[in-house]
Amino acid sequence: MSRALDAARQHDLSTVVDTRHVIVCTGPGGVGKTTTAASLALGAAARGRRTIVLTIDPARRLAQSLGLGKLDNQPRPVKGVDGLDAMMLDMKRTFDEVIDRHASDPARAQRIKTNRFYRQMSGSLAGTQEYMAMEKLYDLHSTGGYDCIVIDTPPTRNALDFLDAPRRLTDFLEGRFLKMFLAPGMAAGKLATRAAGFGAGLFMRAASRLTGQAVLGDLAEFFQSFEGMYDGFKNRAQAVYHLLQQPTSAFVVVATGEVPALREARFFLQRLESDGMPTAGLVVNRVTPPPPAGLAPVTPQAARAAAATLEQDGPESRAAAALLRLHAGRVEVAQRERHAIAAALHGIDPRALVQVPLMATDVYDLPGLTAIGQHLYS
Amino acid sequence: MATGAVPAEGGGYTGPVETSALLDPRLLIVTGKGGVGKSTVAAAVALASARQGARTCLVEVEGRHIFSRLFDTQAWDFTEREFRSGLWGMSIDPEASLREYLDMFYGARRLSRLVASSSAVEFATTAAPGIKDVLLIGKAKELERRRNPDGRFCYDLVVLDAPPTGRIVNFLRAPDVTTELVNVGPIRQQAQSLIDMLSDHRRTNLLLVTMLEEMPVAETLDSAAALRGLGVAIGPVLVNRVLAERTDKAASKAMAELSAADLQALLVTAGVELDAEAATALLDAGAASTKRLQLQRRQRNQLGKQLQVPTLELPYVYSERFSADELGILASVIERAVEG
């Protein structure tokens, strides 16, 4: 076990919920990001800080316990917790707000919002969800008056998409391909004739063979109606990126003890490092705790051998045998998880390493979130 | 599929698929909530199929390199490789799929080179609504339809490790979205042929992977409802990481009543000496396990009552590491189910 890892085990996320302004929870899908985010927000609010937790797609029961009955893009106070608001991101509405803010006049905003590509795209465009989460985060930061904003990132295939979203969007908006669409005359349907350069013309002819000319016309109109808004998008994306880099921000990477989840967590920690982002810790959820000291000498092999001798007797002996077999399995899983965590963190300093044991019941209410909090910040 | 789509001949809802018919379709699309072991189960299904003598191709679409690690092979790419007897694997990326498609249908190399230039590819594969997913499903269809010179299908079964349930509806709707936006031309024809494949219940089944816990079960129920709306046939639900039930009722009852001192005394007879604290810890672990088993039973009932689709339970595998051996255990359970 490396020294950085031992040191990280000594730290939890107390100072993070005490002091940081923006806390970003990130990690692969299904590892308990939303639960961790909600629990951290609860901790910050308990310390008297005005806090909001912004979540993307919470499980229904968790949403209910936070008082998020409907998806309305508005901060709502969480019942029973002073100083804590919660909000569920409505993608479509946030996208509409972005268009309203950046468009030069209401008529243009309206034209974009009724374009059929916009209606399809606002949900499916790669990186949109990530970009909108960033938008809303910045919005809450500049106008919300919160001491602490906890955000739960979208369940993307790859947690890296989250950091890449602003760059990808701006790269795309600046790209050569888009310039073809923005060439004068495109929207009028006079394909190729006046498009910029031979390459673009040939491309447009090829593309119209594949899809028909009407589609390209619509698409061109869509992109042209964005003209003049690109700088707004780009500046905003850069401002968000800059905000995330501040030492008042904190990234909390969430995983489970399973190898694929930890592997993604490792990539993300490396990425945070190379982007100069403030890593605050790794939370490993649902771990099997190592056995207490008194049980440590009982190896899985010894436990199974002893269980075999007890198996033939009365119910009590058989109960003891079952407990020994359970112990053997738990020791093996704990070992598997310990190795997986060490391998994932090889050569990496996660600052804090918090392991949250698998609870006997599912976590979805405030007492459950408080119980998780005991492990995150004591 | 959704509005406007014409189901292929042989389509139409045919009722739930029995577990014994799990491996019968030509394409299995495997999905599940993040963290339930969707990819592991997809690999186990493919392994079971190959062991049953079917020529099987396991396909990943998200470039996560899970299978090459699980099976301990070289990294996978766009070329299929036979890494076990009768079992091929490949990783589809949308760019390679786009290039292949253009080469195949439009021959003109200059054209495909131009269209496949970086900015256009970036647009087609990341920004255009649904195009990326159409390309991924399109490659799956190419594998599913491909024939040997003797006229027989090249693969008996294609197993696609699809995006998780949170994105599966958009993934499967992508061909529909394309036909809504594009009214004419080869792209529309391609999208329509994908709709035909996905809505033909003899060709395509969707396998939902879940776990007997509250959130995964709730998400599975929601997804099943949404997917039925799309007209995709749902195959048996694969329930992963099921804890073994305690069959010895008398022993279970005794465990709940056992004191730490009783336990210490019993264990001494088997040569295990524990202090009181360790004995209590062992009993606590037993009580927590009892609770999780109760939770598991509740969720099993919930799933059975609400879903009305046959389920196949796969055991939680206790071991120091999860590798091809553990995968073999899951594959054996699937093989027993299809053998009846």
The geometry of chain B reads as: elongated
Total individual domains of chain B: 1
* Known CATH architecture of the largest domain in chain A: 3-Layer(aba) Sandwich
Instruction: Give the full name of the CATH homologous superfamily of the largest domain in chain A.
Output: P-loop containing nucleotide triphosphate hydrolases
Please describe the biggest sheet of chain B, giving its number of strands, its sense, and whether it closes into a barrel: 8 strands, mixed
Q: What's the CATH architecture name of chain B?
A: 3-Layer(aba) Sandwich
| Radius of gyration of chain A, in angstroms, nearest whole number | 26 Å
Biggest sheet layout of chain A: 8 strands, mixed
Largest interface, C-beta closer than 8 angstroms, per-chain residues: A-B, 80 and 80 residues
CATH topology assignment of the largest domain in chain A: Rossmann fold
Radius of gyration of chain B using CA atoms only: 24 Å
Counted beta strands of chain A = 8
- Oligomer status: heterodimer
Instruction: Determine and state the CATH class of the largest domain in chain A.
Output: Alpha Beta
What is the rounded distance between the termini of chain A? 24 Å
- Chain-averaged pLDDT of chain B: 87
Strand-residue proportion of chain A: 5-15%
Quickly count the domains of chain A.
2
The unreliable regions of chain A are 185-198
Output the structural class of chain B. Answer: alpha/beta
